[in-house]
Structure formats: C-alpha cells, structure tokens
Amino acid sequence: MSSAQATKICITLKGSAQIIVDSLKYGIHSILFQRGVYPADKFEATKQYGLTILMSEVPRITTLLQNVLSQTEEWLSKNMIRKVSMVITNSHSKEVLECWEFKMEAEKGDNQVTDHSQSTSSKDLTRIQNEIREVMRQISASVSYLPLLECICDFDLKIHTPGNTEIPAKWD
To answer: What is the pTM of this model?
Structure first.
C-alpha cells in the first residue's frame, strides 16, 4: 500500500454473525456509492431493518457480495474472522487508494435474525437500526474529508482468517 496516498479508515461492527454481515454489506454498498466507484444510477434505495439503504444493482457486485458474505457469516459464526478489508484501487495502475477496515466483534448470545422486521431475543430492532445508522454515519463522516477519486476504480475484499482456512471453490 502506497502510504503517501492511501487512506485507511477503521469501523467496528458488533452483534451476531448475521447482523455483522448485514452491516458489512450495507457499509460496502454505501462506500461504493459515496466514493463514486460505480455510477449513482447503478444503485437502488431499498428498505432493510426499516432503514433506507442504497444497494448496487450491478449483477457482478451483487453476486460477488452474496458469495463472499455468505461465507463470511459462516466463518463469523465459528469465530474465524476478526477483520474484513475493502480495498479501493486505481483500475489502471493498481495503486491502493483507500483501505476500509471493518473490525468484527461477535456478541455472544445474539440469535440469528430471520425476519428483518422482527427483533431478536437479545437485541431489538431499534438497537439494530441504531447500530447500522452509526456505521453509515461513520462512513459518511469519513467520506466527507477524503479527496475525490478522480480515476476509474476497482475494489476488492480481503477476509482476514487463520492461515489454515480453506477458501471456497466458488471464489475463483
């Protein structure tokens, strides 16, 4: 990572594996939108946990995130992940421009949420909404002081797992 230009931002996600993965998904979509990695017309406003979230409609992105985040949720439930990094690079030079780190803190005893409009036994909908809003606020606050990305950009996700973790075949 070129330390002269690369910017590093760290956000902490807390909750059950599903709540962390949902927060991560919304955060990634928010960063892609706010940083202009993809055009604004490629995003659609959707309701999640009673909040309006801009989600990418680019099939390649939705498929990538579905594959990566489903595996991330499985690894989180086994306490095998502490951090996910979203790296934004210049498409042509491959220079790292930004690194968004999402630290993960699983809360023991949180049950899986199966219906986003309902509460869990240990965390109610209002608390989940507030935590997701806080993640979005952190992203917006960070974006406000970052320079414009004046090049075509790509992004990649780096899942920080133990060295002996088997990578799923569908990730190729």
So the answer is: 0.85
Length of the chain: 172
CB-count exposure of residue 127 (10 Å: 0-12, 13-18, 19+): middle
Which element (helix H / strand E) includes 17?
helix 17-34
DSSP 92-142: TT--EEEEEEEEEEEPTTPPPPSSTTS--SSS-HHHHHHHHHHHHHHHHHH
In 7-95, DSSP assigns E strands to 7-15, 43-48, 51-56, 83-90
Alpha carbon distances (Å) from 136 to 29, 129, 131, 172: 10, 11, 9, 30
- pLDDT, tens digit (0-9, with 9 covering 90-100), for 65-86: 999 999 999 998 888 898 999 9
Q: How many CB atoms lie within 10 A of CB 40?
A: 9
17-65 pLDDT tens trace: 888 999 999 999 999 999 999 999 999 999 888 888 999 999 999 999 9
- Spatial distance between the Cα atoms of 67 and 56, rounded to a whole number of angstroms: 15
Q: Report the candidate in 67, 47, 71 with the shortest Cα–Cα distance to residue 129.
A: 47
For β-strands 153-160 and 51-56, DSSP reports them as unpaired
